[in-house]
Each structure stands twice: as C-alpha cells, then as structure tokens.
Amino acid sequence: MTHEHHAAKTLGIGKAIAVLTSGGDAQGMNAAVRAVVRVGIYTGARVFFVHEGYQGLVDGGDNIREATWESVSMMLQLGGTVIGSARCKDFREREGRLRAAHNLVKRGITNLCVIGGDGSLTGADTFRSEWSDLLSDLQKSGKITAEEATKSSYLNIVGLVGSIDNDFCGTDMTIGTDSALHRIIEIVDAITTTAQSHQRTFVLEVMGRHCGYLALVTSLSCGADWVFIPECPPDDDWEEHLCRRLSETRNRGSRLNIIIVAEGAIDKNGKPITSEDIKNLVVKRLGYDTRVTVLGHVQRGGTPSAFDRILGSRMGVEAVMALLEGTPDTPACVVSLSGNQAVRLPLMECVQVTKDVTRAMDERRFDEALKLRGRSFMNNWEVYKLLAHVRPPKSKSGSHTVAVMNVGAPAAGMNAAVRSTVRIGLIQGNRMLVVHDGFEGLAKGQIEEAGWSYVGGWTGQGGSKLGTKRTLPKKSFEQISANITKFNIQGLVIIGGFEAYTGGLELMEGRKQYDELCIPFVVIPATVSNNVPGSDFSVGADTALNTICMTCDRIKQSAAGTKRRVFIIETMGGYCGYLATMAGLAAGADAAYIFEDPFTIRDLQVNVEHLVQKMKTTVKRGLVLRNEKCNENYTTDFIFNLYSEEGKGIFDSRKNVLGHMQQVGQTHHAVTRGHSKPPPSSQSLPVASHLLVAVGATTAQACRLRSHRITSLYLGNGLRDSVVQPLYLGQSFSTLALLPF
Q1: What are phi and psi of 216, to 5 degrees?
Q2: Which residues are annotated as a binding site for Mg(2+)?
Q3: What is the DSSP string of 182-226?
Q4: Higher-confidence residue: 570 or 678?
Q5: With the C-alpha atoms ordered 699, 574, 580, 550, is the resulting torsion angle positive or negative?
Q6: Spatial distance between the Cα atoms of 284 and 273, rounded to a whole number of angstroms
Q7: 329 CB-contact burial (10 Å; exposed 0-12 / middle 13-18 / buried 19+)
Q8: Dihedral (Cα; 658, 660, 665, 668), 10-degree rounding
Q9: Annotated binding site for ATP
Q10: What is the percent of the chain with per-residue pLDDT over 70, rounded to a whole number?
Q11: Ranges assigned E (strand) in 583-646
Q12: Binding residues
C-alpha cells in the first residue's frame, strides 16, 4: 500500500458525513451517493443517509440512518435517488434549520454533502453560515451540551450539482444531463419512424426550465429542422422563416420535419412560445399533418448512462476528500467538471453566476445570457445555425473537391461524422465525394459525389454506411494516386481508428514518390477502443461503453437471482484498457484487468479471496472485466478456470465475450462535445496558412463522452496543391484541436 493510500485510509477516523439529495431527481445521483458512502467508509469515517432531502434533515429520527458498504450495492444502475428527495418549506425557515442542526449535532455529523440544484446548494450555504448561531441557540435552550457544541463547532459543506437541465454555471456537465439526453434521443429516434411513415411534422417539447441546453444539443444530435431556446429567441418574423425552412426540407425529398422546443422558450418580447402555438402555425400555413409530443418526466427516469455513473462516482469521491480536508476557514465549495477534471469551486460564486443568467434573460439581455452559459453552449449554437439554416451556394466556382472515407473497424458515430463533413463542405461551396470501403475503395475507384440529401438521416445510424476496411494504402499508392488525379481530389478527410492514423502516416511517406499525395488531409479519431494518441475521446467509445454497461447490468441481475455466481466479461479495446476500466467503474465491477496495469497470479489469487469473503455478506455475486489483450497468458479462459477451481463449493463462475456487439448500435446522444457544456463543440481553428479549418462536436455524449457524433467539420479557405502538414483532429473533454501527425 502506498503512503498516499495509507493516509487516505485514516483521513476520516473520528469524523461523520451525511449525504442527501434534494430538489428534482436526476439519473446518476445514486452513483454519487454510493461513492460518498464507500469512499467515506474507506477513509474511516461514519457515513449517514439523510432520506427525503432537507425534510429528512429537519424531521430526523429514522430519516437519518448510518450507511454500510453493502447498503449501496446494486445502486449504480438505478435511476432517480434511492434515498428520496423532497421540496422542503420547513428548511427555508430558521426554525427548521435549527431542528436540522440539532439532529446533526446529536449524531456527531459535521460534514454534509448535498446533491441537488442551485436552490438546494444555496440552502446548504445558508445553513453553514448560520451554524454557529444555531449551535448557540441550541445550547441556550438546553437541547445540546457545551461539549457537543464544541465538538460540532463548524460545519463543512460540499455540493454536487444534480440536474438534468445542465443549468448550473461553473461546471461543464451536471449529473443527470447525459442520461436525459439519452432518453430524448431514444424518443426522437422512435418518433422519426412514424413521422416518416405518415409524412408528419413533430413538435417535441423538452425540459430545461430557463435553460435551452437539452433542446439545443438534441437538435444537433437528431438534425432537427428548428429549435426554440430561451437564451436565443427567434427574430420577429420567425413564423415566416420557420415555414420556409420546413417547406425547403420537404421539397428536398424529406418525409418528415422535427421541431425541438425548450419548455421555457420565449420570443424577443418575453412572450412564451408554446408547442401548441407552433403546431397551429404549421397546420394553418402549410397544411402539414402536425403532432405535439411533450416528453415530460420520462426525461428524468430510466437507467443512468455510463457517463453519468462515472461522473457521479468521480464527483462523490472528490466531495468526500473536500469534506475531510476542510477546515473552519474553508468556504463551502461545489465539485464541478472542468474539461475532464473534477475541481472545487466556491459555491456561492457559481450560484451567483447562475442567477445572473436568469436575470439577463428577464431583462432581455440575451447576448449576455448566451455568453454566461459558456463557450461550449455558444459554440453549439453556432454549429446548429450553420447546419440548420445555411444553404449551400448555387455557384461552385473556385470550389475544391474534398473526399471523405471511413477506415478501420466500424464505430457508432461514423455516419454522423460523414454527414457533417459532407454538409459543411457543401455549405462552403466545395464539391464533396464519398469513398466506399476505405483505402481499398480509394484504390479501386469506388468514389461518388455526395449531395445534401445523400447523407440525410445518417446522424443516429450506427456502423458505417460507406463501408470500412482495415486495409492500409502503402501497397496501392499507384492506384490511389491515379484516382486522386482522376477525381481531382484536393483534400481528404479520414474517419477511423488507429488504422486511419497509420494510413495517414503512410500517405505522408508516399509523398516522396507520388506528388498526387501532396494534398491536405485530416484524421478524425473514430474507434470504440479509444486508443489513438492526441485525443481524450474518440467517436464511438461512448456508445460502446454504454453497450457494455447495459450488458453488465443484465448479467448482474442474473447473478443476483442465482446467488453465489461470478461473471468474467471480456471487452474489446486491443491493448487499451479504456473500455474495461470505465465499464468496471460504471457497472460496479469487483476487478478489471487491463494491459496498462500488469498483474500477476498473486493478484488473481487476491481477487478470488476477495470474492470468497464477499459471498459471506449479503451481496452474493461478482463481476470481473478483462480487456481482450491485457495478458497473453492470463486469458479469459484461464481466469475463468482459475476462478472456477478456487471458488469451488463457494461460488460458481461464468464467462461472456461481448465481441462485436460493442461496435454497433444506435449512436447515443453523447458527451460528449456532446459531452455543449463540454460536448466538443465546434470552434474554428485556422491552420497551416488557411489550408484547413476544423470544428467538431459529439452529439448524443453531443454533449460529451458519449457516442460522439461530429457535428461540424470545416474545410476552409483555399486548399492548395502544395506539400502541407497533415493534421489530426484531437479532442480533449471540452475542446477540439488540430494536431500535427
């Protein structure tokens, strides 16, 4: 055990932590509660559940119960909050807070973790600021002793933001937002089929109160025709523009229209724009068969996404450490996500900025409100306007010919990347070509021109509609060069995994012999393995992660029913342990074996001994994940046989190789850039003397980690036939960057 681990195991001795959830529920809250409990116990602290939010804190009694390690088992996959949440009027009054303080002091609790929205966190800060006065009143009334008052002389507060609206300033993503986007996209995909069948227009109203994040990212993820959000009210003549837009879509051959409306949508005068208003407008002016669907609380329910489970877990860990490291002078903080890092920020500063957004909208200062939402929100808005409202120029004089292709194994999100690449290229006046079957197709001349409608409806489809192969270009330079000349290709977009990266390097080497290869090209990382350098996330990894989590949830249910059973699950990833590690965290695995963390037979033996002890508790099941190439000798079969032999008479073992099911499926909203407050969002980056400008954002993650859909790729001003440095589109959690090979 390292010195750091030993220090952490003693950090909480003699301390007590209470955790509560308040306000509206959000998927991922249970993951945060679980992390607070288990990390708190690991550090030696006592941890208490506060049931029913602040109401339970005020009422006390059985509403405040000590938690155990086993009491948070099987919580990760549950939506909502298992410890309950309630709106509490009593806590808003000082008398209610006095009762709450009494209940905490009597249990020796001086650390409070609050999971909720800005209102809940503001209440926690008020509680902390009054703490000394509350103790003084309790002591004067004889409800607590002087010794109890001394032991509880200060209260540490840490907040975690749990809200599907993603309306809290200071954090890129709030707990629950990603899962809500998953629910919305699932519904949009389902509605699309019936809309196409009957040539209907659907108006979908999503939650968000005064924040349009859900509506905006949904529109990017599904390719909606129009979106209404409160931060950016439409122009005064929006009715005319909307109807013209819908008509143009139908005239291009589309059989449906999708309009997304945030529940707080308004016009520039502050008048609400309702779903029924929009429906009546479309029916009256265009005569389209139009239906309204109000999604409502279905957005709050369901199983949390992998991203929300991981986010909740990471924030819960950071919250415990912040509480135990706190001093009387430490201000109340909120654990936020900045880029891909959990950070601690002053609670009330973040709350104040959040209130400033609402005030700016109330005062019709919409530009300021948009800026206060953050750079990612603004970038997503710009990408939406570009993809939804800008039409390709009629004249292509001086345009360039750009080809796009998929290389390597299929990954969910590839089709969305192709769609955005093609449409952005057309908007910029370029001639866009698509290449079938990767470099092999480029060598064989399997190339065709793609128009606007060619990629219609591709956003949510999994796999690769263009076809993709692992073939590298080195042996076909002559044929590839000939086809580059034949089709006058002046730029190349390669979407794929490590094979795409390797293929790009081979093209660079080939320039020494073939001048035709001296064209600019850019690689967009798309692989479920998430193993390409230069990028934190790759297209497809989030969808694969969600697929693994869904499978593990079902397997855990099977294990819970049969009792005393351990499942060994093999995941993809090659030599990269990303999927196994993150799925292990999101699914609550007992162990995860990966190539990056070498393990020995002794480590396997320790894990077996752990499972033997676990079977003596109330949790009589086990889950072990193994990356497919973590060790050439300790194979899945070897580990299965070892566990079966060593666990004989105590537990039995089963193995599952998930295989290619991880590569396919409907593209999830995503995280990514969806992860958007972090979705990658799009931002222009001038590169190599105006050769390329690239912008991207994952949708459906489109929002963040998540089966990332690239929502924009600019191929910009003046591709030249000179020798240029190839570029790689790398993605950190909240920004995109062009990196040299």
Answers
A1: -65, -50
A2: 118
A3: HHHHHHHHHHHHHHHHHT-EEEEEE--TT--HHHHHHHHHHT-SE
A4: 570
A5: positive
A6: 16
A7: exposed
A8: 70
A9: 24, 87-88, 117-120
A10: 87
A11: 591-593, 621-627
A12: 24, 87-88, 117-120, 163-165, 200, 207-209, 263, 291, 297-300, 470, 527-531, 565, 572-574, 628, 654, 660-663
At residue 532, the 3 state secondary structure works out as coil
Q: Which residues are catalytic?
A: 165
Q: What angle do CA 218, 34, 676 make, to 5 degrees?
A: 20
Measured distance CA(212)–CA(218) in Å, rounded: 10
Query: pTM for the full model?
Result: 0.88
Q: How many helices (H) and strands (E) does the chain have?
A: 23, 24
Both structure tokens of 46: 């006592």
Copy the structure tokens of residue 345.
Answer: 């920020």
Rg of the chain's alpha carbons, rounded to an integer?
27
Average pLDDT over residues 718-726: 40
Cα distance between residue 356 and residue 313, in whole Å:
29
User: What amino acid occupies position 535?
Assistant: S
Supply the DSSP symbol for 593.
E
Return d(Cα 266, Cα 358) in angstroms, integer.
Answer: 13
Quick one: average pLDDT of 229-250? 92
| One-letter amino acid of 262 | A
Sign of the CA dihedral running 428, 433, 438, 443: negative
- Give the pLDDT confidence of 6-34 residue by residue, as tens digits: 677 888 899 999 999 998 899 999 999 99
List strand residue ranges (DSSP E) for 35-153, in order.
Answer: 46-50, 64-66, 111-116
Extended strands (E) in 439-595: 447-449, 491-496, 521-525, 565-571, 591-593
- Tokens matching residue 610: 């752990």
Q: State the residue for tokens 């949009």.
A: 188
Which candidate, 589, 694, 607, 600, places its Cα nearest to that of 646?
607
Are 200 and 290 in contact by the 8 Å Cβ rule? The answer is yes
pLDDT at position 535 is 84
Asked whether the beta carbons of 569 and 559 are under 8 A apart, the reply is: no
Please report, for residues 511, 518, 721, 722, the alpha-carbon distance to residue 515 in angstroms, rounded to integers and kept in the order given: 6, 5, 9, 9
* Unique residue bearing structure tokens 């010195």: 3
Within 8 A by CB and 6+ apart from 518, the residues are 511, 721, 722, 723, 724
End-to-end, the C-alpha distance of the chain in Å comes to 40
The per-residue pLDDT for 713 is 29
Distance CA 309, CA 382 (A): 30
